[in-house]
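ingest -> validate -> predict -> emit
validate: passed (alphabet ok, no gaps, 213 aa)
predict: started
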Amino acid sequence: MRVIPVSTQALLEAQTLVVRDFMRITGRVRATGAPITEAFWSDVGDINAQVMDADTGLAVAYDFKGVGALIAIDPIPMASNLTVQEIEVKFSQLDDRINELLRVYDIRQAKVEIYRGAFDPETMQMVEPASSRFVGFVDGAPVETPSEGNEGSIKIKCVSSAQELTRGNPDMRSHESQLSRAPGDAFYEDVTSCADLVIFWGKRGTIREGAAT
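emit:
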């Protein structure tokens, strides 16, 4: 359960907080495969902001690039179960940094982190580190080319990490598979032929040749 500081609770009750979203995408450089992270937030200008890391639960600071109203994130349901959540993040094609993200980097199955931060409207300072709202992977990034005079968009479809629980294991029970996990383990050596093995247990009343009566 999230614990809200008293000062933040007072601002929430007064409905004076200004909310902003933060997003980090960790993709790969196409040429080398090295991981690279791009971070954006839904306001103008660049900012160094603290967020509550979803993996460690600790506050960490990251640099975020401002894209203002060019970013729109679907409502994220706050569910405490293993339901696979799907959301869509929409960017404008007018931002060069967004185009670079899709055309220079490979974001297939890239890790996605979304945080929400609250700002005091009088000071425009964050009242506490931004809370984690979504952790998952990119599941598609279609680019809509606009007709003349219209504005196109880039939609990044994301699914939550709970999707990993729905994946099946393609590994087969075989001698080769077992050796890859434990070299020298011959437990499954005859697994491919045991289904065809016929075991004769004999019949009642029969006497084997040479056996005592």
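The chain has a mean pLDDT of 77.
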